[in-house]
Amino acid sequence: MRVAIFSDIHGKILLPFKLVDLYQKETGKAVDFILQCGDIGAYPAINNLDKATAKHAQSDRDELGFYDDFTKINQRIKKFLDELNITMICVRGNHEDHDFLDDLEKENSHTNWFPIDVYEKVFVCKSGVKQVLRTENEILSFVGIGRIGDRKGRTEKRFIQDYERKAIKKLLKTSDTFDCLITHDKDDREKNGYGMPEIRDVLDKVIFYYHFYGHTGEPFKHEIDANGITQSIKIKELEHDENGLLEQGCMVILEKENENLTIEIVDKKLTNKLAKSNWKN
């Protein structure tokens, strides 16, 4: 099984699918799923944009990619996604329409993840809940934790909610071992005034082999977590730089074969082919 991992796509919903399509064609290696570490930019209505997204959208229409391309059917996009036949499973970030996502989560109370787009290719998973991906030969287990932490006790929906904390507390009692943890925020061990303490609790009390996260604006980073077990990987935001190119570490492949896990940092020689100027075409 191969899983492509991205973070902070900010409305460029189609770009991870196009990168996976390119990767498969360039390498001959099949990808089975996409996991995404939040800040999807899931805004189905323009009037519900948060201030930061509205500001960026004034100079970059890509911020509105969910509204433009994933709320009503575009036959060209539908044909591409149907032929690719891959789903993307996301955690929530802080830049989403959380009222919209809350309504969908309530409507899908019986499932661990739920579709948010018109093509039913983009899903959001519930925080703190065991998730399983299956292919014919492999099973990959993971947990997602969405939104961000807050030291000031604020309850706005971009911050972790009480019902999600309850799910995480239940998770802490498990004896299960998981392949990976997918979060938007990072843990708070560096004591820099930000981070999510619930992520630190999970990493200290539950065994994960990999932890993938985004949000912080830091470059790609790969290190061993403070727990001495988990490989912690900061995924670079899926943003084009001043030269119109994607940065190193914005696409990572997690492969599981015969219970062994390995990662591949996709080379810029590949991602450079989908530059700011041409990726939509």
From TrEMBL:
<dbReference type="Pfam" id="PF00149">
    <property type="entry name" value="Metallophos"/>
</dbReference>
<feature type="domain" description="Calcineurin-like phosphoesterase">
    <location>
        <begin position="1"/>
        <end position="216"/>
    </location>
</feature>
<dbReference type="InterPro" id="IPR029052">
    <property type="entry name" value="Metallo-depent_PP-like"/>
</dbReference>
<dbReference type="GO" id="GO:0016787">
    <property type="term" value="F:hydrolase activity"/>
</dbReference>
<dbReference type="InterPro" id="IPR004843">
    <property type="entry name" value="Calcineurin-like_PHP"/>
</dbReference>
<protein>
    <submittedName>
        <fullName>Serine/threonine protein phosphatase</fullName>
    </submittedName>
</protein>
